[in-house]
Amino acid sequence: MDSVMIALIAIVVVVLLIGLFFWATYNSLVKLNVRVQEAWSDITVQLKRRADLIPNLVESVKGYAAHESSVFAAVTEARAAVMSATSQGPAATAKAENQFEGALKSLFAVAEAYPQLRASENFQQLQNELVDTEDKIQASRRFYNGGVRDLNTRIQMFPANMIAGMLGFTKREFFEVEDMASIEKPVEVKF
Question: Is residue 157 part of a domain?
């Protein structure tokens, strides 16, 4: 009877340990997944904030450079592309971001030609808010990519990878920009 009882206790202990491991692994995967979702939400909030600033910036520049309609159209189209891409995931958003950065640089290049525009308090305030928002987007992107790194690492590590596979956890995409040179250099704001 003693050997049967010891074997039964050993089996119960092993089952409990497996259950605890499963429970802890599942909870850690859920926590990492939620962190990634939260970080993506932060990115979309900052992209929306920037998109809301752009029409005001465009209107400020339009008053001085009405003949630059192709630049204004490109900025408006790029803004719309970024807003629609956020629902399609990081890869589509990164591609749209790349186009938007180029359009925004063109807008600032037009503004450079008008000293009275650069001196305008409203234009300066909009530029400052835009620079602040760009900083927040970069910080949100780093936080998101850190969360994706942690989640993807956990999903790929043994034995968590078996549990992740059974429960449908999948690797997430990093928010990477195709043309890093254009993104690494912040939007120049000159007064």
Answer: no
- Tens digits of residue pLDDT in 28-48: 999 999 999 999 999 999 988
171 belongs to a structural domain: no
- Does residue 184 contact residue 97 with C-beta atoms inside 8 Å? no
Q: Where are the alpha helices (DSSP H) in 63-159?
A: 69-85, 90-112, 115-119, 121-156
Task: Provide the whole-model pTM.
Answer: 0.72
Angstrom distances, CA of residue 36 to CA of 21, 90, 132? 23, 12, 23
DSSP state of 113: T
Note down the domain range covering 112: 51-145+176-184
Compute the distance between CA of residue 92 and CA of residue 157 in angstroms, rounded to an integer. Answer: 28
Task: Tell me how far CA of residue 102 lies from CA of 63, 82, 84, 106, in angstroms.
Answer: 21, 13, 18, 6
Tokens at 96, concatenated: 């749209």
Q: Is residue 191 part of a domain?
A: no
Tally Cβ neighbours within 10 Å of residue 24.
Answer: 12
Domain contains 99: yes
- As for how many domains the chain has, the answer is 1
Neighbours of 42 (CB within 10 A): 17
